[in-house]
Amino acid sequence: MEDCIFCKILRGEVPPGKGKISESDNFVAFLDINPEKEGHCLVVSKAHFETILDLPVGMGSELLTFLKEVSLKVMDKYECDGFNIVQNNFKSSGQVVPHLHFHIIPRKKDDPLNLKL
Ligand code: AMP
Ligand code: ZN
Predict the structure, then answer these.
(1) Half-sphere exposure of 67 (CA within 13 A, CB side)
(2) Considering the domain boundaries, does residue 115 fall inside one?
(3) Which CATH number covers residue 69?
(4) Would you say the CB of residue 53 lies under 6 angstroms from ligand 1?
(5) Could you list the residue range(s) of the whole structural domain that residue 54 is in?
(6) pLDDT tens over the chain, length 117 residues
(7) Number of domains within the chain
(8) How far is residue 16 from each of residues 5, 6, 22, 84, measured CA to CA in Å?
(9) Residue 88 CA: which ligand 1 atom is closest?
């Protein structure tokens, strides 16, 4: 998609937010440019799917494996004991970037989170 910010990042036309973390065959993880917590990152599909409804079921296993891998990596790197996974679909849910992505937000004990997602 020509104007999609995540497609531009995936094509290498724009740097990946605050840095790339990891990638698999069909997904990439990079830090969110406007993090809710230190280490807040996004798992983004390499193909331009708008919402989770567009994701082929056959990619589900790879996605889950990658979400787990990235979550463990950020928990380790940012010394956290928990994490939230948030995923918005369509504008009314708060989805701003219409390209499938999952927020992984590292959490520590007693750190309140008021999601503006
Ligand atoms: P959502 O509201 O679920 O669509 O979330 C979109 C997320 O993308 C927000 O948390 C933004 O901070 C993040 N975002 C937007 N542009 C960029 C960018 N260029 N690099 C990294 N993250 C971005
Ligand atoms: Zn896109």
Answers:
(1) 18
(2) no
(3) 3.30.428.10
(4) no
(5) 5-107
(6) 889 999 999 999 998 878 999 999 999 999 999 999 999 999 999 999 999 999 999 999 999 999 999 999 999 999 999 999 999 999 999 999 999 999 999 999 989 888 766
(7) 1
(8) 10, 8, 11, 21
(9) 3
Q: Could you tell me if the CB of 117 is within 6 A of ligand 1?
A: yes
DSSP H or E segment with residue 67: helix 60-77
**What is the rounded CA–CA span in Å between residue 43 and residue 102?**
5
Helix H or strand E encompassing 23: strand 20-23
Any catalytic annotation for residue 101? yes
Please state, in angstroms and rounded to a whole number, the distance separating the CA atoms of residues 35 and 31.
8
End-to-end CA distance of the chain: 23
Q: How far is the CA of 97 from the centre of ligand 1 (A)?
A: 6
